[in-house]
């Protein structure tokens, strides 16, 4: 899932495991462009927004925004004239205090409601940054900054830029306007154009260790009104989502609010159905599994299969499962009947599928093919 997991508040949102990264930044000699990359759901977006505010602050002492000056006030209310955020329509509501209530509500036509194999093209488009938005933002750079200081452009997720938008961005990175700083974020840096990567300072956002991530998560949960903590359940979800605390918090919040239409809630439910099917090995009802899960976010389903296959490979080699430790008995049983070569080929197919997971193809057909291949892992 996306890294845009929490609405931004006025207080600092820098996760403790990202604090050393922040402290290593030189605000006196800040580069024209940075590319912050790392796993989705670990706090990159919150980090980037706080960084943008610090770079725009007009009374900053050191490397922290003062939260008192006019620039910080404008930023916190989503009105700073020198801050440009290029994010998909589905993520705009998570920018600092931005008011998008006047935007036209998403249309729910028949194509988005019916039992089709894939998502509507309209829905797919909303997950991308349009070429019109990119061009408009780039063209505005020819005008000097409104406040006479820095101008900051934040783009997330960078890998979701269409090729025409990426080329437009590249031209600005090659000849950056004065006092303009690009903060680029990517969950999958391997999908970013090498020409863009080469013009940025690369920063790796680390994932917290399990103890640190769970401790942070449990500190956040009391902020959810009326939430009752079930530590065992929290730890299970934490492992299943690859140790991404922001993603876990978002999913727990949606579940607490009983938001059955939340994209992540749907994806988690589909993921668990998928795991129940894959746990059956050669007896997997792959057609039924694809039928029941294909409407969930395809990238999330692929990540689930990849984590399960990774754990299966670890157990087959005598190791301990990383993502699904509570399923170790099932994994051990499956590992005994798995064909190593076929399991490796299945893993390679998943890696290949993830390279094009955002392509507007019929995910149901792709799921059927992958789950059928998974069944063959256990056939003689």
Describe this structure in words.
The chain has 380 residues and is of the alpha/beta class. The protein folds into 2 domains: 16-204, Rossmann fold (3-Layer(aba) Sandwich), CATH 3.40.50; 260-376, Zinc Finger, Delta Prime, domain 3 (Up-down Bundle), CATH 1.20.272. The protein is 46% helix and 7% strand. The chain contains 17 helices and 5 strands. It has a 5-stranded parallel beta sheet with strand order 2-3-4-1-5, with helices on both faces. Strand 3 (151-155), helix 7 and strand 4 form a beta-alpha-beta unit. Helix 6 packs parallel to helix 7 and helix 16 (340-355) packs antiparallel against helix 17.
Précis, in short:
α7 links the parallel β3 (151-155) and β4 (180-186). The longest helix has 19 residues, at 298-316.
Reconstruct the topology from this structure.
Layout: H1 19-23, E1 33-37, H2 44-56, H3 70-76, E2 83-86, H4 110-113, H5 121-125, H6 131-140, E3 151-155, H7 163-174, E4 180-186, H8 194-197, E5 201-204, H9 210-220, H10 231-240, H11 245-256, H12 263-278, H13 286-293, H14 298-316, H15 328-337, H16 340-355, H17 363-376
Parallel strand pairs: 1-4, 1-5, 2-3, 3-4
Helicity range? 40-55%
The helix/strand series, from N terminus to C terminus, equals HEHHEHHHEHEHEHHHHHHHHH
Total domain units? 2
Count, helices: 17
Low-confidence stretches: 4-11, 99-125
Gross CATH architecture of the largest domain:
3-Layer(aba) Sandwich
Percent range for β-strand residues: 5-15%
For the record, the CATH class of the largest domain is Alpha Beta
Distance between the termini: 36 Å
Question: How does the major sheet shape up?
Answer: 5 strands, parallel
């Amino acid at each position: 899932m996306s890294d845009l997991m929490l609405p931004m508040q006025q207080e600092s949102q820098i996760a403790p495991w990202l604090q050393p990264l922040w402290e290593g930044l030189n605000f006196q000699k800040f580069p024209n462009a940075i590319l912050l990359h790392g796993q989705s759901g670990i706090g990159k977006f919150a980090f980037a927004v706080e960084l943008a505010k610090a770079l725009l602050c007009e009374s900053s002492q050191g490397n922290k925004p003062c939260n008192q000056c006019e620039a910080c006030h404008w930023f916190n209310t989503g009105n700073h004239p020198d801050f440009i955020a290029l994010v998909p329509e589905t993520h705009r509501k998570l920018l600092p205090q931005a008011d998008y209530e006047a935007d036209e509500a998403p249309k729910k036509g028949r194509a988005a409601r019916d039992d089709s194999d894939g998502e509507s093209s309209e829905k797919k488009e909303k997950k991308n940054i349009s070429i019109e938005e990119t061009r408009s933002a780039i063209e505005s750079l020819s005008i000097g900054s409104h406040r006479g200081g820095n101008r900051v452009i934040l783009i997330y997720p960078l890998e979701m830029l269409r090729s025409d938008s990426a080329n437009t961005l590249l031209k600005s990175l090659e000849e950056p306007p004065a006092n303009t700083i690009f903060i680029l974020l990517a969950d999958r840096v391997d999908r970013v154009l090498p020409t863009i990567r080469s013009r940025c300072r690369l920063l790796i956002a680390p994932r917290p260790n399990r103890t640190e991530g769970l401790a942070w998560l449990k500190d956040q949960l009391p902020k959810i009104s009326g939430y009752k903590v079930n530590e065992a359940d929290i730890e299970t979800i934490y492992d299943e989502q690859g140790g991404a605390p922001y993603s876990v918090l978002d999913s727990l919040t949606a579940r607490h609010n009983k938001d059955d239409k939340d994209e992540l809630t749907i994806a988690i439910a589909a993921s668990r159905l998928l795991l129940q099917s894959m746990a059956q090995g050669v007896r997997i009802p792959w057609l039924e599994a694809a039928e029941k899960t294909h409407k969930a976010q395809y990238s999330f389903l692929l990540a689930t299969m990849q984590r399960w296959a990774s754990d299966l490979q670890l157990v087959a080699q005598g190791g301990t499962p990383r993502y699904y430790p509570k399923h170790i008995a099932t994994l051990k049983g499956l590992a005994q009947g798995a064909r190593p070569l076929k399991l490796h080929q299945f893993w390679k197919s998943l890696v290949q599928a993830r390279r094009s997971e955002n392509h507007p193809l019929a995910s149901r057909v792709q799921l059927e093919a992958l789950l059928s291949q998974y069944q063959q892992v256990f056939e003689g």
